[in-house]
Amino acid sequence: MSNTKKKLLVISQYFYPEQFRINDLCAEWVKRGYEVTVVTGIPNYPQGKFYPGYSWFRKTREEHQGIHVIRLPLIPRSHGSLMLALNYLSFVISGGIWSLFTRVKADKVFIFEVSPMTQALPGVWYAKKKKIPCLIYVQDLWPENVEVVTGIHSKKILGAISKMTDYIYRNCQHIFATSPSFVKRIEERKSAWSDGKSKVVYWPQYAEEFYHPVKPKPMAEILNDDSFKIIFTGNIGYAQGLDILPQTAELLRKRKVNCSFYIVGDGRFRPELEKKIDECGVRGMFHLLGRKNPEEIPQYLANCDAAFLSFTDNELFQMTIPAKLQSYMACGMPIIAAAGGETARVISEAKCGVVSKLRNAEALSNLTQELRGKTMEERMTMKKNARKYYEKYFGRPELLNIMDNFLNSQI
Fold first, then answer.
1. Which positions, given as ranges, span the membrane (predicted)?
2. Domain architecture of the chain: domains with CATH
3. Please, which of 57, 227, 228, 321 could form a disulfide with 179 given CB 3.0 to 4.6 Å?
4. What predicted TM-score, i.e. pTM, was given to this entire model?
């Protein structure tokens, strides 16, 4: 890079202290010599209420690891679809007003798109006003995600969302997608093409540097017993399909298979998950540990035998490579998955775990029992395979270098 710092404006409704990978991306860009400004909301994810110390009038401007942070007023997510819609809308309104009157200067705009897609609008408006390139990193497909997560099937509503998505794509010079299936789906839109060339680039997610294999050590929250320990980390949401776990645990208990499940995280589905755990009579097999600092996760993983991930059964999630998968693989974890599509493909190619049919507790319990029965040598091979595949296809330095080329290009 030249001696003059390139100014990068990042639009993301979520940012530190909320835990999203954009935090690491921005910190790395600062290290690489960019001047980074993040326009974000007031932290309230996933609990739905403002974090302590934050409000519409407190901490609206911050510095975090050399990053300039501008926090726009929004309505917290709270509970229910109405409040969630107001949360999405309020960020767009605040962002739109900000884009009209801000004096912040930038050379490029980078939009970190996890739901909602609406959050991209202020970034597009700013880029159009300043006549600078706009890049978007798509991790949730819209309107597909809206239909799956909310159950909305109205053609008028989905059509309006689709038009908004086309408007956003049309005004972005590059569209980055997290899986090959996402690339194909986005390329079905005319708005993803310019002068006969696709604007879509496959740029998978990586895991932060602190995700790497560590040695097990005594932890008060992970019991030192003979059970086969399975761990899930991250958001406990409806999309994760975690209701399969209590059913699976019940089957394993009936077979007298000594397993335990550690859930590290929190989210909207947690109360229902706990209810299902009690209904299945497997409370003694589950340990819900709540949210932890991301830097602590590798140690929790190291003290368990396998890591779990799952999805609800629909086409959209089969196109997804979740960030959780990269984190597990970076830490060298054997993986048990109730998933299909891209996730199943990666685990199969890497030979780092077992994959069950979606929504099938019988199949999942069989594969869990199968993995438990493998020798330490066989499981060690899976660990090595996971880390090796991660370094080859999801390596952080290589992916950051690729993005660097786009950020420094003239377009």
1. 81-101
2. 7-206+395-408 (3.40.50.2000), 228-393 (3.40.50.2000)
3. 321
4. 0.89
